[in-house]
Design a protein that fits this description.
- By secondary structure, the protein is of the alpha/beta class.
- It is built from 13 helices and 17 strands.
- Strands 7-6-16-15-12-13-17 form a seven-stranded antiparallel beta sheet, with no helix packed on it. Strands 2-3-4-1-5 form a five-stranded parallel beta sheet, with helices on both faces.
- A hairpin with a 2-residue loop joins strand 10 and strand 11.
- Helix 3 runs parallel beside helix 4, helix 9 packs across helix 10 and helix 10 crosses helix 11.
- The C terminus is likely disordered.
Amino acid sequence: MYLEHFALKELPFRLSPDPAFLYLSAIHSRAKAYMESTIWFTDGFVVITGEIGSGKTTLIETFLKEMQQDVVVAQINQTQISPIEFLQSVLAQWGFNPFKMRKAELIATLNQFLIEQYAAGRKVLLIVDEAQNLTNKVLEEVRLLSGVETTKEKVLRIILAGQPELNAKIDSPDLVQLRQRVRLRFHLSALGEDDLAAYVRHRLSVAGSEGREIFEPETFPVLYKYTGGIPRLINTLCDTALLAAFAQDRRTVSSADLDAAIAELQWTEYAARTLTKAERLSLDDTARHEQPPVGRIAVSHDGQPVSELLLVPGRCVIGRTEDNDLRIDSRVVSRHHAQIVTTTDGSWVEDLNSTNGVYVKGRRARRHRLKPGDVVRIGQHDLTYHLLGQAATDSDDADEEPGEAVNEEGAEAAVERDA
């Protein structure tokens, strides 16, 4: 790797949440202060939202690392669960073996535990990450738990963290009582251009740069243009740019190295990647209708056909929300999960830094050239690629072109990036 080449002690742009690398921008500092306020105030929830990859999980890990010893914490990350499974998960975090308990026993055990901790002078905190995936029934259980109290105050402190959809869920008519219990809400927005430069320098400093300017100043506006200030995307692009500079035996990352990294990742500018479906159709409508389809994606779930997408030269985005060209309505699919880029030479599927990844032939793929019959696994759905109008060329039978695909075995835990 490039560590010795750049005289660094550790990788500066890993995607895993590491509190040592947290850059406290003004936005992140405020969000952290709201989290800390839960320790002193028990009169409601704190809700922290942010896009995938905005740094919510890293912020939570930092907050927990600095936690006082008199605070008992339960942290729930797996949120696609039933009300009973949620209560069991909370009790398991506090050392119980609750998996044979019925609901009444679960609630009684939780209430007793909370009162005992209060009597012993300890504070109790529940943190739920990826809370946008909780069903309304589970959120109602959370609300009921928050109602446990003594004659003076509530006993349980609660932080809900999640993607922006969490706000919409809390604002739904079915959760009026929960909404009334929300004391603070804060949205963790992306970094500005100045903060982006400080963020990159901070992570390099923690990794051992000792003040050396490893990224040349002219790279920062380009970094912002292609990442939108989203920390996870910044990490991905910076890591790839360091590899590009290392391959050219350069001691600093130049604009040329950054361009090479962008080309390898096959990224377009962030603003273009986040256009609404209507905006993309407005820009691409003429080109799409002038050219016949050259491929087809058949979508299935558990072997049953769901939908299909005709591929013309251009870009089609796949994800969970309505603004995608191909929508897959599943909680394990990211808002903008992947894209298929089609040219006259063929089609490529590319992971858009999704939480749960894109799989081809059982292996995680960052970018993969599609061959007729390839099955791409996204969440619990299979996308089968078919070529139209011509026979497969020799290149379709070849492996991915060098430098265009990175396959990784295994899957990440379904927690963000969102980030």
